[in-house]
Each structure stands twice: as structure tokens, then as C-alpha cells.
Write a structure and sequence with these properties.
The protein has 298 residues and is mainly α. Helix content is 52%, strand content 4%.
Length: 298
């Protein structure tokens, strides 16, 4: 964060450094704030940082083509930016403080069915790549790891004796998640039988590596999953995060405690985890309507 960013409002770089050093925000989060600040900068070219209500309204009109989610994120970021400016006496008030965030339509996360999961995980091991891909998918479905957490795993984060994985989640909080036998077996085969074939540049501490011996990126995992979905004719649109949703929903559907799921997912608030209760109820209703002799609508 020592490198200065261009096209930011006054004190923008100071704010980003504050997020990185004082607030301990991740690089991804800081990039999202940078993106939102860059939208404000052109609007401020002929104006002072001290915006009035009319100017705020004019600015929001420049974002009218954005989705409700994007607009809400922009206002939230700028509210934090102006709070920082206010604390440091760079402005006299926070013009975004009273701006109401657009209401978000509640969307339930997409979830793969158990049959779709079984199809996705059914990867015959023929070489180092198929062994690695199977280990990735088994681990993601077994633990609910975020893809950003997955790509940062090191060899030492897997404990075969304890059947656990250690990961560093949001806010740099470490958590420990149990791993089931299917995922452990896939990991064992990948690590001890095939992984060395990918180490063409010498040793690499990262668990999952590509054909160049470098650690895998989130984009590479997304492409791999999309390719497998096409190959296996899985019609439900999904991404790596869908495996996390499926992990939580299937656990809840089979009787797992909501607070245990919260702990494994690394949610700071139980309310975030509670969305899976709605997904599970929706699935129960679908099953009822589909399979009950008098289910469905007349």
C-alpha cells in the first residue's frame, strides 16, 4: 500500500493506507474501495470535498445505470471515506451520512443438488491435474472454504492426523475446519502421489499449484470448475462460491447446528449464516411439491 494510486479524490491514498494499516483490510477489499473512490474523483474536479445535498443528488444520478448492489456499495464506501475525512478535520460534515442505502432484493444463494455435487466430484484420477482438481473440489465441498482462502493454503495447513485444515479468513482470523474422509483421501493422493510432478521450478509451499509450478489463482479455479460443469452437463449456473453455499445448505438440511455451520464458514454474525435456513426450507418445499402424492398446486 505504499504505492500511490492515481485518479483518487484528495486524501484518497491516505484513506486507503488507513484501511490497510489501521483497519487491517484485505487487498481485495481495498481494491473495491479504490474502485468506488475513482468514480467520485471526476465529479469532484470542479467541486470542493464539501458537497451539499444537491451535489450529492447530482453525483448519485451519475451512477443511475449501476445495479442496486453496486450503488449501495458505492454509498457505503464513500460514507466511510467521509467519516475518515471528518475525523481528520479535512471536512466539516459527512454528506453521505444521511443518504439511505437502496433496499436490496433478497436473493437466495444458488445451491447444487446432491446429485450434481456427486457428478462434479466424480473425477477419474489419470494424471497430476485430475488428482489436483479432484482434491480442490472435494476440499471446497467438505469445508466450505472461500476460493480466496483455498488458493492461499500451504502444505502445512492440512493436518492428516487431526483431519483438519487451518485457514486464514476475513479480517485475518484463523479458523480450523474438520475434513471428511473423501476429501482427505483425495488430498493424500494428490500430495503424495502426484504433486511433485508439478514442481518444475523447485519447492513451492502453496498446496495447489499449476503446470508452471506456481500457486493457482482464483481465476484458474473458476475456469476449471466451469470446464468441468460443461463436461458433466451440469445445468445449474454456479461458481466456486456455490460450493460454499452447497456445503452449508446440505449440512443444515441434514441436521447440522446453525452455530457450528457459522463457525466453519467463518461468519462473524449468525444472521449471515441464517440465509441457509431459507434455502433449506425452499428445498424442502420443492421436494414436497415434487414427491408428495398430494403436493404441488391444483
Amino acid at each position: 500500500m505504499t504505492k500511490r494510486k492515481k485518479n483518487l479524490p484528495p486524501y484518497g491514498n491516505e484513506f486507503l493506507n488507513y484501511l490497510y494499516i489501521d483497519k487491517n483490510y484485505s487487498e481485495n477489499t481495498i481494491e473495491s474501495y479504490t474502485f468506488e473512490l475513482e468514480k467520485l474523483a471526476p465529479f469532484l474536479k470542479k467541486k470542493n470535498l464539501e458537497l451539499n445535498d444537491q451535489e450529492i443528488e447530482q453525483y448519485i444520478k451519475t451512477l443511475q445505470n449501476e445495479s442496486t448492489l453496486s450503488l449501495s456499495h458505492n454509498i457505503s464506501c464513500l460514507r466511510s471515506f467521509y467519516k475518515f475525512l471528518l475525523i481528520n478535520h479535512y471536512v466539516k460534515k459527512n454528506p453521505f451520512e444521511e443518504i439511505a442505502l437502496p433496499k436490496q432484493p433478497k436473493k437466495l444463494p444458488k445451491v447444487l443438488s446432491v446429485d450434481e455435487i456427486e457428478s462434479l466430484l466424480n473425477i477419474p484420477i489419470k494424471n497430476a491435474f485430475s488428482a489436483r482438481n479432484k482434491a480442490i473440489l472435494e476440499l471446497m465441498y467438505a469445508t466450505g472454504l472461500r476460493v480466496s482462502e483455498l488458493v492461499n493454503l500451504k502444505i502445512g495447513d492440512i493436518d492428516f492426523e487431526m483431519s483438519i485444515v487451518r485457514t486464514m479468513g476475513k479480517g485475518k482470523k484463523e479458523r480450523i475446519i474438520p475434513i471428511g474422509d473423501y476429501a482427505l483421501k483425495a488430498l493424500y493422493i494428490y500430495i503424495y502421489e502426484y504433486r511433485n510432478q508439478l514442481l518444475i521450478k523447485g519447492w513451492n509451499d502453496y498446496l495447489f499449484i499449476n503446470n508452471h509450478g506456481n500457486n493457482l489463482t482464483r481465476q484458474a479455479i473458476f475456469k476449471m470448475i466451469q470446464s468441468l460443469a460443461l463436461e458433466k452437463k451440469i445445468e445449474t449456473p454456479f461458481s466456486p462460491h456455490t460450493l460454499r453455499h452447497s456445503f452449508a445448505t446440505h449440512l443444515l438440511h441434514n441436521g447440522a447446528n446453525l452455530r457450528d455451520i457459522q463457525e466453519m464458514l467463518g461468519h462473524s454474525s449468525l444472521s449471515t449464516t441464517q440465509i441457509y435456513t431459507h434455502v433449506s426450507i425452499q428445498k424442502l418445499e420443492e421436494d414436497y411439491n415434487k414427491f408428495h402424492p398430494h403436493g404441488g398446486k391444483l
